[in-house]
Amino acid sequence: MANFQxxxxxxFVESNELNFRSLYLFHTPLGSNQNQSGIVDSxxxxxxxxxxxxxxxxxxxxxxxxxxxxRAQGLHIYAGNWQxxxxxxxxxxxxxxxxxxxxxxxxxxxxxxIVGGTGQFAMTTGVIYKKFHEQxxxxxxxxxxxxxxxxxxxxxxxxxxxxxxxGGNGGSDKDIVExxxxxxxxxxSL
Length: 190
What we know:
This is Dirigent protein. Homodimer. By secondary structure, the protein is mainly β. The chain is built from no helices and 9 strands. It has a domain at 24-151. Strand 3 (51-59) and strand 4 (68-78) form a beta hairpin. The protein is globular.
């Protein structure tokens, strides 16, 4: 008989929390701007084994002129459901070259698991929530919300986090693009 046990474990690990909202994945399997292509045909009877390579752009808005901030690059394989495994490779300057390693079932709704990362997102774990946004003639747009935790590795510097305007309702958010500056030691004389 199976025995499942989950034991709480207290361990202090300093980490950064990722909360990326309002990202839009452009899933375009049809038309002249396809961003995926079949590489292995499926079994004629069962449909199993179809393999498709994808290079889906992830943008900061749902409009055609939105800025590409990352790309979901990898594979999806049909095994009763579409199993996805890919890297989200960031192109926006702040995270350029960093990746999130992602896997899960389906494309349009539900969740994908974040099972790792590289660069600023090394060893990240978390979830990407997916919500259907818009059907188009050549594919669809999926809204993504990324929530994860990234341990601060020894020797790495954490990036400052934008929390919004201070001092009331006025002003505007500003992105912090430079490395954090903090003193390593201080000497006080009394």
